[in-house]
Amino acid sequence: MKLNELIAGFAETSLDIEVSGITVHSNQVKVGDVFFALAGEKKHGLYYAAQAIKQGASAIIYEPEGDGEKLADKLKNTALIKINKLAFKLGYIAARFYHYPAKKLAIIGITGTNGKTSCSQFLAQMQPKSVVIGTLGWGEWGNLKETQNTTPNALILQSMLADCVNQEKQQLTLEVSSHGLALERVNGVEFKGAVFMNLTQDHLDFHGSMEAYFQAKLSFFKRPELEFAVINLDDAYGVRIIGALSEKVVLWTFSRTGKVIEHEHNVLAENIRLINTGLSFNVCYREQKSTVCCHFYGLFNIENILAVITTLLATGVSLENAAKKASALKDISGRMQRFGGNKEPQVFVDYAHTPDALAKTLTALKQHHHQQVSLVFGCGGDRDKGKRMQMGQIACHQADQVIITNDNPRHEKSDSIIGDILLGCDRNKVIIIKDRKQAITRAIMQASQDDCILIAGKGHEDYQDIKGIKYPFSDQTVIKQALQQWKTL
Known about the structure:
The protein is 34% helix and 23% strand. By secondary structure, the chain is α/β, with parallel strands linked by helices. It folds into three domains: 83 residues, Udp-n-acetylmuramoylalanyl-d-glutamate--2,6- Diaminopimelate Ligase, Chain: A, domain 1; 230 residues, UDP-N-acetylmuramoyl-L-alanine:D-glutamate ligase, CATH 3.40.1190.10; 151 residues, Protein-Tyrosine Phosphatase, Chain A, CATH 3.90.190.20. Helix 4 runs parallel beside helix 6 and helix 13 packs parallel to helix 14. It is globular, with a radius of gyration of 24 Å. The chain starts with a helix and ends with a helix. The model has no long low-confidence stretch (mean pLDDT 92).
């Protein structure tokens, strides 16, 4: 594609050059590529212009915001093109370069504080010729490649969509984060459907308030191309979203508590049973009823399964077929992932890192298990500090024993993070073990075979982020080792 064709409507240039590739990463530039320099949260992309030029960039398109203008003035003998608010426009430019791949895929976006990953992974299992992009990675279910963000930046996202088209995929499920919406990462993507799960406190360090957080989510449901929306009626914010939907959007709702509104497509859960081996419930739609039996835990997983069944119904799948697919779903890494059992303590790994998620996860385990429930958790550094005390309160109220440990302290001191958590704790119920491996091992080694242990906060992550360095660490690996050790007692 010619450069003037690529940026037509966004900027003008007399440069008649062929663009062989586009990137926002200077270290990935190849000869003939165009390097896009964005303002960035910490540093402007033009700080890396020299590397991009050295590696063969044919042109640099930059954002004047931030230090852009000042840095551009220092660059000599370089093809520079300025585009105001480039971050907002990058998705549309990238979509043009990759020949609008979103138009060739049926894309469903899932948003909400909790449940995005489980639902996106469930749908990837349930749909033929399907791919997923989200927290756990991107690609076919069970064969995912790494992603840096839940919702990748606009240019990388369009590249992924193009790869999906080249692989002749037809369905794509995308986790749509509030950061992804606020930072315009999904611009240039055309969504067939949008799913809303819930909204609880998280990311207030970024958004500033719950209302700003909600408005970021709400913007997703105002997209003009949407054909249908799937909304959780059990969440109060869901009702507000329904009120903002365009009349042309077909509304589908789901509820595990029997809530309905006056419209055509209400999907409900009835006859819910929480048993030691998982969940059993009926899914009801109009006059139809089908049973789902699965090995997942917790009422929140009923909401997740209702969400994906409702989404399949919206795409034309029958209720019977959707329920059958739901009953066959397999575990998701780090989402109520179970280890042990069969005369060993049951140990669950879950990504729960918000007050709401931690409360729901602990409630779920206590509903399924009637012996002691122990908890190992911490809070991440450089993130929403307001939730730490709340999570301490929830932990001590709902768990029989609590071990507070490190969870990605990043650039904060772990003592400071733990101190914030302790403000909400009953100190008589709490043990502090900063070393996460020791904390997990201690919880398992002191458990009886009928006990249940929740290791919360990191889920699928295979590292500990300390002072900017990601050290290899896996909750799952430590659990397996500790359970082997437990057997020798």
